[in-house]
Amino acid sequence: MRLLCLSAQVSFSSLLLSRTCGCRKPSVQTSVCPCVCVLVCVSLCVCVCVFCSVAGGGGRLSPLTPPLFAARVCGGACVEVDSDTEAVVGDGFQLGCIYCKMRGEVRAKASVDWYYRSSDEREKGDIYRYQNQRGEIMDPRFEDRLAWNGSKGTDDLQDGSIYILNVTYNDTGTYTCNFTRTLTYNYYEVQANNTKTVQLNVVPRLTRGMASILSEVMMYVSIVGLQFWLLVEMIYCYRKIAAAGEEALRESEAEYLAIASESKDNCAASVPVAE
């Protein structure tokens, strides 16, 4: 919320600057209005701030998050990213498992199996299976606490993430995601498997990394510096426009006096002298 307020403040300042400088009617003396550069820099700064805030904040997803939200760069693109490994007790947590298909034109059908092994267990056990667009909880310890948060409405799965509701300290352990994909070609089928492991640690409160803290500090420093720069640009534009207006006023006054003097001379020459 604070980021949105700061972004709105920057946008308002840039709009005020554009109206003050009169970018729509640049003066003859300036070939390029500096406000255009200011507006472009403001837009870039806001985009960078939003990106740094999202990347540094961890960006945990809720069960309502659309599939492949964290993995999509643009429509149809898929990027494999690692899952978070630190959950807060009492909150929800997403176990990420993304297995991208290299050739989008090939028909495929996939299923996902999740396994769990606690710190005091030797063997892992099935906890969740998703196949034919249906999910099934296999472990009673996770009954009514697991929800599918991967690809929906298709058998061609690329995101096999699940969401844990109401995380407890007993959820600490090793989670294994097993992707099984069958690729269908014209005359044959190929089966591909992929396994991803998530070592989950449950903590009382979320600890932020140094990179996240530094990115937020740099974001606020950049916004403050940008506000100061906008103020300097506004003063510069105002003084330049005021000076141009005074110069135009002096030129107009001189031209008016010259015309008046010429008219007076013409009138004196046209009046006949009495003999």
UniProtKB/TrEMBL annotation:
SUPFAM superfamilies: Immunoglobulin (SSF48726). Residues 66-199 form the Ig-like domain. PANTHER family: SODIUM CHANNEL SUBUNIT BETA-1 AND 3 (PTHR10546), SODIUM CHANNEL SUBUNIT BETA-1 PRECURSOR (PTHR10546:SF9). The keyword Signal applies. Residues 1-22 form the signal peptide. Belongs to the sodium channel auxiliary subunit SCN3B (TC 8.A.17) family. Keywords: Cell membrane, Disulfide bond, Glycoprotein, Immunoglobulin domain, Ion channel, Ion transport, Membrane, Signal, Sodium, Sodium channel, Sodium transport, Transmembrane, Transmembrane helix, Transport, Voltage-gated channel. InterPro entries: Ig-like_dom, Ig-like_dom_sf, Ig-like_fold, Ig_sub, Ig_V-set, Na_channel_b1/b3. Its main location: membrane. The chain crosses the membrane at residues 28-54, 213-232. One of its GO terms (molecular function) is sodium channel inhibitor activity. Pfam families: V-set. GO terms for cellular component: voltage-gated sodium channel complex. This is Sodium channel regulatory subunit beta-3.
